Amino acid sequence: MNHDKKNQVKxxxxxxxxAYATSKTHASGEDLEQLIDWLQPSSRxxxxxxxxxxxxxxxxLAPTLATVFATDLTKEMLQNTSHFxxxxxxxYYVVADAENIPFLNDSFDIVTCRIAAHxxxxxxxxxxxxxxxxxxxxxxxxxxNVAPAIPALDEFMNTFEEMRDPSHSKAxxxxxxxxxxxxxxxxxxxxxxxxxxxxxxxxVNRTAEDQSQVQxxxxxxxxxxxxxxxxxxxxxxxxxxxxxxxxxxxxMCKKKSSS
Length: 259
Prior knowledge:
The chain is an alpha/beta fold. The protein is built from twelve helices and eight strands. Helix 5 (56-61) links the parallel strand 1 (46-50) and strand 2 (67-72). The protein is globular and about 55 Å long.
């Protein structure tokens, strides 16, 4: 199952590399502005960005740090992103699995992962690997879409996400993420929960293979119950869904120096 998901990630993201590099949803957001404010990084720091996608985190980090390693499971995505980031000479590109990071223990001052972990089949292994490659007292920032605490709403969200993008594995709840973080000797020092509005047309078409897939997802949303429409903040016009909102969590953790 894990192998299948990772192959789907490679297939889908290699086909849609440009869409993610230019996606306004991924390229903007208060979280990107807050990264540097939260980190207050040293100019000598070395960072690792996991599942870099369109390279939006790397663009914020590179001007402030000594070196940034941009990694992604999908070679085509990484190659495409490198063409957008030619101005940054301190960025190195490595094809890498976030659940099997090809670097030594205690290598990085900073590790980041933004809007990607819901694609990871084994998030527990991902967090273990983050802890392993972080230096003692190093900083980890995770930003991702998170599932509601209510099971029915969790199921609704993860269903439409996988219908739209079969490489989606699972959006975890904040509670689930906290459990994984704490079990791996990472200490949460700051967190923020926000709502992220997604334009439905752009969102559903970004990874859709064909029109029948778009129609299936559209029909699923049309059958949403009142509670689902309220929680995900459906905005409709003349019976057509224009946008909806999902939860996003940003958390900053420190690796305990005694571990």
